[in-house]
Each structure stands twice: as structure tokens, then as C-alpha cells.
Amino acid sequence: MSNLDYLKSEHHEFLDAAAEAMADDRLQGILGQLNDSFSQRNRDAWNAFPGSDQAREQARAIKDETLAELDKHLETLERSVMEGGGTVHWAADGEEACDAVLKIARSANAQRVVKSKSMTSEEIHLNQALETAGIETVETDLGEYILQVAGHRPSHIVAPAVHLSATDVASVLSTVSETPLANNRKELTAFARRKLRQSFAAADIGITGVNFAIAETGSIVLISNEGNARLTTSLPRIHIAIMGMEKVIPRLQDLPYFLKVLARAATGQKQSVYASIVTGARRAEEIDGPEEFHLIILDNGRSRILQGPLRESLFCIRCGACLNACPIYRNVGGHAYGGVYAGPIGAVITPLYDGLSENHHLPHASSLCGACQAACPVKIAIPDLLIKLREQLHQEPGQLGFFETAAYRFWARALRSPFAYRIGTWLATRTLGRWKRRSGWLQRLPGKLHGWTQKRDFPAPAPNRFRDWWKHEGRNEP
Amino acid sequence: MNRDEFLTRVAQAARLGNAYRIHVPPRPENVSYVGVQGDLCDAMAREVNAVGGVAKIVSSHAEAREQIAALCKQYSVLSALCWQHPVLNRCELDDLLSRQGVAKHCYDSLVKHDWSQRLQIAREADIGISSVDFAIAETGTLIVCAQPGQERVTSLLPPVHIALVEESQLVPDLLDAIELLRRSDGSLPSNIALITGPSKTGDIELQLTTGVHGPGHWHVVIIRESG
What pTM, to 2 d.p., does this model score? Predict the structure, then answer.
């Protein structure tokens, strides 16, 4: 745990954090393992599922159609939730969402909250808001619980504590146990089970995210492997669910396609262990389950994304498959990205949520190889979205220096004139091309250009121009 | 921001965003149906075992009863949380548990207590015994719907969960199950859980560990209704 700053901080320089991550041997080992297990399982799962392509297209189409009339589906959702006795709260941004939670907590005189993993609540910094208000908040997903005790930020969407070893976890959890814990997964897990059961039993409010919200029935769907989402929606008196507004799907019959692709993409399972379809609070005569149900619908910049060319990023169902597939993520890990969402999809949506110029490195943190799109259960064209962001970035004032602007202008002019082009290529082959004939690579470029050769070599021009080769030999070849 | 302003803004954004739609061509309904080739009971048992559960196919309710008795011995069960359900009745569960000296807790006994007492009893139970509303053979998934007599905690709080599934409760694919979830008035139960395996986590070093929050031991007894 040497690079503690990056484990805890947000919106730092990607390149600095990435360099530190790449020098961390232990982290590199863990990330390699992540690739071997999750990424391979994702590919195997698609191969073993005969209808995978159709299911993914179907899921993608449902998202596309739903977003086209998002306001109508949200109204239907609201009506259905209210008919079932629940309450709907509309939040334009994170602050309003936190306020809505605090208001519910105050009117119920709640002291203790348990949470099951929710990226959306991370996004709005709900835990800080609750703690400032003096409400004890416990994360119950094992990974999130470990991070909460350690004070770290999540490094992966589905395996948030993947950057910690069992030894790290033992020393983290020993700070909240009466006796020191051994470096043993089973014992650590059993300790967390006992400890968190007490929190579940004592909690007044359970807060969850939402994987899918079904408009026609007013249901929310929660996926987990551990079962903490079920406990959070079964034991506390009040259930609050927080959803990004793009999570709505129109009909119950749309759900199976998402359930068929989500777990396969995330972990290679056919189904996650638990999928809960929660429709309001407990009914009369039932003797367990919450007495109140609240749904908070959050915009927080999503309407701005919806109206623009990066709309497709709202299809994301937060499975984490693109992280596991990405050669960049696999080398630098989640903390380097400095946003709530890491990896390829994080490189798209962190700049959209938190500002492009503040996160100007992220659209470039990709080799555009397309592995993310191939792994994605809803086939989001992440490389295209990254290119669009790069375009937007270069249109922002101040992003291009004098040198770069002049270089591009010169380049454009040279390419427009056949004479200048001929002279240019002749010069390049006679000088650099012949000089580097043997290796074919330049190790150091001068001046501002050395940024390129700091991390990799630059291909040298060929020793002969194509037009010369064609004139002398090429045209005679069969 | 109030509701109407919120929705107006979304409506406007959705309209502008139409210029960037993907337009996936229309697909037939029920794409990606997998289903099961051959016997549903066999497929169910295979999948249950594959996800880390223990499946047993029996050919009568009497045999199912023997299985439950054996599991109660295996886990040294003193207290059981049970559904009130026709399948459990057909296995004569009440009689079995009292013979074994196991304290049985179900809706009729729990409803007399207040919430904290109920929770206490549920937390101390050694085993949860339920049936299902449906089960999906293709994935080995149990579907349990909340209603009086079918408590959520039965399949959730005890360290061991046993589900008794009759052959007629099996459907081949998730796509077959989804419309069966609706009640006659079209509404859904307050809570539906699709359960596929014992509680699992990979949060420590990506290694699979069971029983983190829900049951770590997951037994499915499939009752084949022969002839």
C-alpha cells in the first residue's frame, strides 16, 4: 500500500498515477490475474451462449429505444411506483439526491444506514453527506466494506478492492476486530459476515442502487453474488433506491435479455447468484421486508449527455467487462483514472460528468484497439466515443499550443501541394531514412517531439520513396 | 429542481439526442432462447451442481423427506425456518422435524412475535427450508416470490438453504419464467428473488469464497413425478 494518495484521491493526473501503478510489482501481479480470470471468462461465456449476439443486440436496441422517449418512461415508472405505495424523488444533481436521502432519514429519525454496492451513490458522494449529518453508514458489499474501513476508493466496478491482497485485507479488518485476523480468506469472510449481520439488524434504512428499473411495474432490479442487496432490501424498515435516470427499461419482458448478458459479461456466470425484483414495500400480511419504499431518480449531467453525440455511453449497464478487456486498464489499474468509473467506459463518462478539460488525459488513455467494444454486453462503440471526445477536446480553447497548431498547419499545407510533398518525402528518405536504414526506428526525437519517444520509439521513414521504387522496379514486377 | 422542470429537460434532451440514435433493426421476439434438450430434472440438477450447489433427484415425497432428515443430521440442525407451502406439506415436514427434535418456525408462529423477536429467531435458525414458485432448468435458478408463508428471510439468513422442487415447477428458460411472475391482476409480488447458487464473493484476491452474506450451503431436492 505504498501509493496511498492515489488510492484515496480523485481527479489527479492520469499519467503520473499510471506511472506509479506500473512501477508497483504487486499491483501488476493482481492486474494480470484479473485479465486471466475475468477477461477469459467473458470470452468463454459469449462463445458458450448460442444466442449471445442476438441477446446483446436486443439489449442494445431496448436501451436505444428507451432513451429516445426517456421522459415518457420515467413518468410511467413514477406512476407505477406511486400506485404501489412508494415515493419518487427527482434529483437534478448529486446534492439534490443527497438532500432527498437526508430528508427521509430525518423524518424517520434514522441513526443507522446500511448500503449495498452502488456506483451512483459513489458518484454523488452520499457517504460523506450521511456522515456529516451524523448518520452511521456501513457499506455491506465485502469489497466496499474493506475499502470503507481502509478509506480507499474503489478500483474496479465489480471487484472494488481488487488492488488489496489477503494480507492487506487482514490488516485492514483487524482494525475493527477485537483480535487480530489471520491472512485467510474464509476467516476474513466469516468475520465480515458476523460483523455486517449486526449492522443489518440494527439499521433503520437500507440504501441500494438500481441495476434496472421496470417502468410498467414500478420495480427495481438488483443484482449481486453475495446477497447483501437482498439483506439490504429485507431487514431495514425503510428502503431507498437511487438510480441514474438511464437505468429505466419499459417492460418486464425486456428484463431477461439484460439478465442473460450482464452476468456473462461481468464474471462469465450464466446468472448472478441473486437477482432481486423489488416492487415497493412489503404488502399487508407479510412479516418481513421494508415498510417504506423510496426511489430517487438522478440526472446529474445525464440529460446533457443524452442530447449529444456521446448518447450511447448511457447504454452502459456497469458490468466492468471493458475494464478487464482493456490493455491500458490491465496495466494501470482503476485508481489511475481518478474518477468514480474507471477503465474504457470511465475514460468516456468521467470527462462527461466531471468536465473534459479537467480530465483531458482520459480520452487519450486508450489504444483504440476495440477489445472493450467486443466485451461489452450492449456493444457500446467505446473507441468511437473516445475519438469524438478527443475531437471535442481539441476544439476547446487552450488545448493546443502554438507549436502544435503551427505543426498541423504546416502539415496540412504540405499535403495539399504535390510539389511540397515530393520534396518533403525526398528529404525524409535521404536523411533520416538512410541514416536509420538498419534499425528502422528513432529512439529520440528533438525538442517538443521528444514526448513521443519518452515511452516508445518512432518509426523512421523508409530509405526509398515509393514513387522511386515504382519507377525503377515496381512496375516491372508481375 | 422540481419534477416538471426535470422531465421537461429530459424530454428536450431525448428529442435532440434522436439525431444520434443507433437504430438497431427490429428483432423477432424471444431471441436468445436457450431452453433445455432432454430431461428438465437432469438439466436442473446438472446446473445446480455446476454453480456450487448440491442437487439430488428423488422419485417420491417420501424420498425427499429422507433427504431432509439426512441434511438435518449433517448440519446438526436444532432450529429450522420454513415456508408454509403445499410441497413441504406433501413431504410431511412438520412430522419429520418434530421427530428429529428440530424447532420449526414458520409464518403462523412468527406472526405472533414483534419484528425484533422475529429477526432474532430468523438469525438463530440453522437451516431454511422452502419450495419455489418456479425453477429454471437451463441455469439452475430458483425463483422465490414473497408472500405470507413465503418469507424472504428463509432463503437468506440461515447458513444452509434447502429448496424442495417438484418437476412440474420446472421451466426450461428464463424467457418462459418471466411472464409467469405476474399475479392474476398483472402486478408483481413485493419481492422476487432469482437464486442461482450459494452466496459467493470474489472480493479478496478474486478467489471464490462462499457464504459471505447469504447461505453458503445450497441444496436443491428435485422431486420427479414419475408416471
Answer: 0.92
